[in-house]
Amino acid sequence: MSVKLKVARALERAGYEVHRVRPSTTVPGGAQPVPAKKGAPKRNPLSEPRLRTHTPESLAELLQQRREAGDRLVQAPVFILSSVRSGSTLVRVMLDSHSRIYSPHELHLRNIRVGLTNKYVEGAMSELGLDARELKYLLWDRVLHRELTRRGKQVLVNKTPSDSFMWRAILDCWPDAKFIFLLRHPGAVVDSWNSARSYWTREETAADVLKYVSAVEQARTEYGGLTVRYEDITAEPEKETRRICEFLGLEWEPGMITYGQAEHGDFKPGLGDWSKAIKSGTVQAARPLPPDDDIPASLRAISAKWGYLDMSATA
Questions:
Q1: 311 Cβ partners below 8 Å, 6+ apart?
Q2: pLDDT tens digits, residue range 184-206?
Q3: Cα–Cα distance between 105 and 188 in angstroms, integer?
């Protein structure tokens, strides 16, 4: 076995994806590769049609179509849209403590792909009115319904920060989806995210946070939903969870505050917050907000828009 092959296999066992490239075909006695045959470009089995942009009218029409086709098992799922390090795990476990709400750990639906590997399966699925995107939507829906049913609950609330980047796809999948927008002081988000990404500069961290908060604000502006703030949730958890329950059409339950008395699965890296604070089972006070001068320049506009910075006072 060659050294290269040994290294490749060792990397695969460690969990890395290794792509092996075939050596070029050469003519006998020479080093010149045989020219590749010209033909159709290589197809990408993971390619999807262009995502549709919906209006309220087209969403209503799509919802009717989905109901008539029986395409969706989960009805009116709720998605918490937030940046990283904004307290979404805390909100998740508080809601998951409700007798009718199931809120799972981060599922990273955005990274699930469905591949149609040749023209035959494309044609077969096309006859059913399905393409790669619609098949992915069916998978999303089935996974959420499976877990909702296993828990014996009725309302699904999903949270993964990267969901903020695919809010249009969420509505395309579930036209009756609802959004809860979870805001936190952008400067505090940078401080928290930078502590977990110490190998990034503060500017790099701010640039990453800007992507998240911009996506959240776009969905908040264009579609709407319920806006809550991390600072308010930690200061007045009963008041804020009552607001959320009202938005969801549910009665408030006191067990939502003492979330540590309920089972929420393991707190692990990659599945949400796993700090001592979240494992304590009680709502912890938020850290003091950073001074205005510490807010990165790239985040000052959104900080002002979200009410965390008075631009006129700093002009």
A1: 300, 304
A2: 999 999 999 999 898 999 999 99
A3: 23
The half-sphere exposure of 140 on its side-chain side, counting CA atoms within 13 A, is 28
Taking the CA of residue 225 as centre, how many other CA atoms within 13 Å lie in the half-sphere pointing to its CB?
28
- Rounded distance, CA 206 to CA 57, Å? 37
Residue-level length of the chain:
315
Q: For residue 289, which of 215, 208, 231 has the smallest C-alpha distance?
A: 231
The pTM of this model reads 0.84
Secondary structure (3-state) at 181: strand
Strand partners, 82: 182
Sequence-separated (6 or more) residues with CB below 8 Å from residue 52: 58, 172
Give which of 185, 139, 153 is closest to 78, Cα–Cα. 153
Element at 234 (helix H, strand E): helix 230-235
Angstrom distance (rounded) from CA 188 to CA 299? 11
Which tens digits make up the pLDDT trace of 71-96? 999 999 999 999 999 999 999 999 99
| Contact status, residue 281 vs residue 98, Cβ threshold 8 Å | no
Work out the burial of residue 199: count CB atoms within 10 Å of its CB; fewer than 13 is exposed, 13-18 middle, 19 or more buried: exposed
Residue with structure tokens 């059913």? 128
Half-sphere exposure of 44 (CA within 13 A, CB side): 5
> Cα(300)–Cα(220) distance, rounded to whole angstroms?
18
Q: In what order do the strands lie in the sheet with 226-229?
A: 101-102, 155-159, 78-82, 178-183, 226-229
